[in-house]
Amino acid sequence: MALPHAQSGEVASVRPLGAQLAQATTSAILKAGQLEVMRVVLPTGKSMREHQTPGEATVQCLEGAVEFHAGDSVQLLQPGDFVHLAPRSPHALKAIKDSSLLLTICLLPG
Amino acid sequence: MALPHAQSGEVASVRPLGAQLAQATTSAILKAGQLEVMRVVLPTGKSMREHQTPGEATVQCLEGAVEFHAGDSVQLLQPGDFVHLAPRSPHALKAIKDSSLLLTICLLPG
Question: Which of A91, B50, B96, B105 is least surrounded, with the fewest CB atoms within 10 Å of its CB?
Answer without folding.
Answer: B50
